[in-house]
Amino acid sequence: MTRLFNDPAVFADEALEGFAAAHRDRVRPVTGGVVRAGTTPAGQVAVVIGGGSGHYPAFSGLVGRGLAHGAAVGNVFASPSAGRIRSVARAAHGGAGVLLMYGNYAGDVLHFGQAAERLAADGIESRTFAVTDDISSAAPGESAKRRGIAGDLPVFKAAAAAAEQGLPLDEVLAVAERANARTRSFGIAFSGCTLPGADHPLFTVPEARMAVGLGIHGEPGIGEDALPTADEAARLLVTTLLGELPEGIGRPEGQRAAVILNGLGSVKYEELFVVYRKVAELLGEAGVDIVEPEVGELVTSFDMAGVSLTLTWLDDDLERLWRAPADTPAYRKGSFAAPGAPGVGNVPAAEYTEHTEGIVLPEASEDSRRAAATVLTVLHTVADTIDTHAEELGRIDAVAGDGDHGIGMQRGSTAARRAAVDAHAQGAGAGTVLARAADAWADEAGGTSGALWGTILRALGTALGDQDAPTAPRVADGVAQASAGVRRLGGAEVGDKTMVDVLVPFADTLTAATATGSPLTAAWDRAATAAETAAAATAGLLPRRGRARPHAEKSLGTPDAGAHSLALIARAVHGVLLDHH
Asked: 93, 111, 217, 405: which one is catalytic?
């Protein structure tokens, strides 16, 4: 378990601060993460990677020559927000565009996609790419749904080495696509991980058993088996990966492969070497030529006891990129022809400046300022409600997911309340208070819930605005827009076992009730009841999206955590409306 921390809520930020201080010769901190200590040369594509904290050396440890130009870092096991990704990308940009790379998790897909849209608005060309190497998380025919685990490293490195060679943005993206298509990973675990401040692991493995097909965010494996010997573990890993060869690799004989045996946090190097001796033997017997193998902790999960094996099947170009030199805080190989200063560009850190934007408070009417006071009370109530139920939400989420929904909702709702207090104190109207709260929720929570709740609050803020007194139809329109925005952004629909299963009937009921002239309090009451009914009904659904999808059967009988938290909030807000009626 994680023993050394101060406030768990700021653990990730303090860890990043310490990392940057320890490696100031190679990286420089910026809002949202780190970039290389030297500038990106003009004409070179910037490769910006990222994801949640808790996986070191991924992601910040992989920033440096030959690898990433920057890393956006989120909270523990939560994707960085679009705002943080944009900040890192702008700092890393050298004029030739940015390739945003990340593991294929819903929150990362949402936030990196939004960041790309914002970069486009800034005039910065960008592309996004999600790594999908984990064969245990989806069938071969659904490889686009697979998670990114330790295969992140060879895919990131291939793209970054191509960028170092001066390839244009679309060609760097093509290299990432080819490397990803030829990369497969599979893992096992012997115990779960415990987050800072938590008193129990996200999942447990019975004595003398192992979880097969682990996830790196504390997701339980897809099955269990007897605890193996080191050689048995090696055989399971190798035979599983040789059982699914990429397209174009008919047989393993005569093929070249980059090999990574990755420790998840508590399996120590000597143990990994014992396993690797058998891995190398088995691959040799299969006729595989191993190219510059890596054995160690490369993508971790706090203190999870587990290992994963990654094979990237190389062609001539990918082998050259894999062998190319790299110099980062956590990953180094080869040497560069011109040493110079750390990073590229030989520009001292003092010459860098942060990208900052002026903050102008929009004009607001007295009616809207009075409404903002009610909005502030609502956000206080939302945060209090989440605090009360955070442990319950985490328990529900841990049944088939990673168990962090309660923690993420706490971070988001607390940040939203804090931002709303500040905006209200400056005289902001209802729309601006909600907009500031939306950005704060997305920034602090990260992950899928951060992106979706940021969308909900922003849609409500847009509907209310800063000039007119809110009306029941206007509030209902804001909720309807939030429902449409969440579905558009996340891609989920009713029946997928997500918050959409509650948001849609809540929005539809509220719209129908206000359209017949019902006052907001009565209409909201009916909508909250519909939300509670829908949330309970998710217990009978199998998840079709998100981290719970690979463990669908385990979730049967348990409601979706996101749906349940939305229903709790809907009912709590009704109490505020009654008090302010």
From this structure: 217
Tell me what the mean pLDDT of segment 78-87 comes to.
Answer: 93
Q: Is the C-alpha dihedral spanning 336, 338, 342, 344 positive or negative? A: negative
Place of tokens 């997911």: 401
Q: pLDDT tens-digit profile of 346-376?
A: 333 333 344 444 467 899 999 999 999 999 9
CA distance 46 to 95: 9
pTM of the model: 0.84
Any idea how long the chain is? Answer: 581
Q: Are 173 and 127 in contact (CB under 8 A)?
A: yes
> Is 564 assigned a catalytic role?
no
**Residue 332 is inside which H or E element, if any?**
strand 332-333
pLDDT tens figures, 45-65: 999 999 999 999 999 999 999
Q: 3-class secondary structure for 350-406?
A: HHCCCCCCCCCCCCCCHHHHHHHHHHHHHHHHHHHHHHHHHHHHHHHHHCCCCCCHH
CA distance from start to end of the chain: 48
Domains of the chain: 1-131 (3.40.50.10440), 172-194+203-326 (3.30.1180.20), 366-579 (1.25.40.340)
d(CA 58, CA 150): 9
The answer for residues whose C-beta is within 8 angstroms of residue 455's C-beta and 6 or more apart is: 438, 482, 485, 486, 489
